UniProtKB/TrEMBL annotation:
InterPro entries associated with the record: UBQ-conj_enz_E2-bd_prot
GO cellular component: cytosol; nucleus; ubiquitin ligase complex
Source organism: Pachysolen tannophilus NRRL Y-2460
Name assigned to this protein: HECT-type E3 ubiquitin transferase E3D
Taxonomy, superkingdom: Eukaryota
Listed GO biological process terms: proteasome-mediated ubiquitin-dependent protein catabolic process; protein autoubiquitination; protein monoubiquitination; protein polyubiquitination
One Gene Ontology molecular-function label: cyclin binding
Length: 397
């Protein structure tokens, strides 16, 4: 006898039609014998007259609809081979829009998402490192052996990198520098000075995926053959920026306070958001830096700023990305010139590409089957908030 319901659900607020789309998947051994709006923000489902499940909505519905039976509204689809049943339906939103109401600005969070996705609550940003810690103390240890590499009591100053496109923006500014007071467009500054941000002594500059430090500021870090390694276990931690004698430490090689880790794929999503913000890009082809002739993955940022709920979260997630992807190498190769020629290329270390492929596959599997694919695209939903991305479950014994 089947005991597992294998419940998956997904609810998304659709601002353009002011409604909530709901999709529910479960094992076909079960039958829905009752489904109603339990409150303005939740649905109560009864399976086989005995098993009750509550689904939280991504947006509220009008209070007058509470206790409404939804059985007649269900669209059903059964996959007999995999013994999966899916039901879907739409509900009206509680937002009351009058005639001429500019809902694009009120309810479409894409503008808000673009403007605020690079805020100071990014994973392991200055604010993130200092908040919630007694006296703002923290340490970054080697993920391999636990040796402390950077301790806050040894740091004079923390600074967030304003953007990964900072140097390009500075180059643009210098190429278009306004005329000086004497009427001449004189470059009196050394432009090389502005091509990189350099931390002062015992300071750290924090990028999306790295920490930038001076080569000799931290004793637990040693340099061997131009590679920064852990003093204790000799694990490689990053790379040396040869032009300016700075060390770039990759966040995924560390643990925060000996427990919290930074997944390599976070870096790729940060770059995607940065590209959306700075270039308004929506289509990308991903390469491994070690082999820039093979496209490993193509991505289409389908929509952003959406509100969703699902079975893995159980609560509203705001400002999410809906991303289409394809990682079928045969399909990509056959269509590279025709379909993906104008996609923006992005290059990542192998560890980032492999972790990204693993994450998007797992993310796609969390959705009900009916929502996992659209034509040759696969679908994922990504939330950029720090509390979701940070992996706080990896605790050293």
């Amino acid at each position: 006898m089947v005991s597992s319901l294998d419940l998956k659900y997904y609810a998304e607020y659709l601002p353009r039609i002011n409604s909530i789309s709901v999709c529910i998947q479960f094992h076909s051994f079960y039958t829905i014998t009752g489904i109603k709006l339990d409150s303005a923000n939740s649905i109560l489902i009864t399976f086989n007259n005995t098993k009750n499940e509550t689904i939280n909505l991504s947006h509220g519905v009008p209070s007058r609809l509470v206790n409404t039976d939804l059985f007649s509204s269900l669209n059903t689809n059964e996959n007999e081979k995999e013994r999966v049943m899916t039901v879907s339906f739409k509900l009206p939103s509680s937002i009351n829009r009058g005639r001429g109401d500019n809902f694009q600005n009120r309810n479409d969070r894409s503008i808000n998402f673009l403007m605020h996705s690079f805020n100071d609550n990014e994973i392991w940003s200055k604010k993130y490192l200092l908040q919630g810690n007694k006296n703002s103390q923290f340490c970054l240890s080697c993920a391999e052996c636990g040796e402390t590499i950077i301790s806050s009591d040894k740091i004079n100053k923390l600074n967030d990198m304003p953007s990964e496109s900072w140097s390009e923006m500075m180059d643009f500014w210098h190429c278009h520098k306004p005329d000086s007071e004497n009427g001449k467009n004189e470059h009196t500054f050394n432009s090389k000075r502005y091509s990189v941000l350099k931390p002062s002594k015992n300071s750290v500059i924090i990028g999306n995926y790295y920490f930038l430090i001076n080569m000799k500021d931290f004793e637990s870090l040693i340099i061997v053959d131009s590679i920064p390694i852990c003093f204790k276990c000799h694990c490689q931690l990053g790379k040396v920026e040869s032009d300016n004698k700075l060390v770039k430490l990759y966040k995924w090689n560390f643990k925060l306070n000996n427990k919290e880790t930074f997944r390599p794929y976070y870096h790729s999503f940060n770059v995607l958001i940065d590209s959306i913000n700075s270039n308004a890009s929506r289509f990308f082809k991903i390469y491994d830096e070690k082999n820039d002739e093979i496209i490993r993955l193509v991505l289409w940022i389908f929509s952003f700023g959406i509100n969703i709920t699902n079975q893995s979260e159980g609560k509203i997630r705001e400002n999410c990305l809906k991303i289409m992807f394809n990682h079928d190498l045969k399909f990509i190769t056959e269509n590279a010139n025709e379909q993906f020629n104008n996609f923006e290329p992005l290059y990542f270390p192998s560890i980032v590409v492999e972790d990204l492929l693993q994450e998007i596959t797992q993310n796609n599997n969390r959705l009900p089957q009916d929502l996992q694919h659209l034509n040759f695209w696969n679908i994922i939903i990504v939330n950029k908030s720090a509390d979701e991305l940070a992996d706080k479950s990896a605790v050293v014994a």
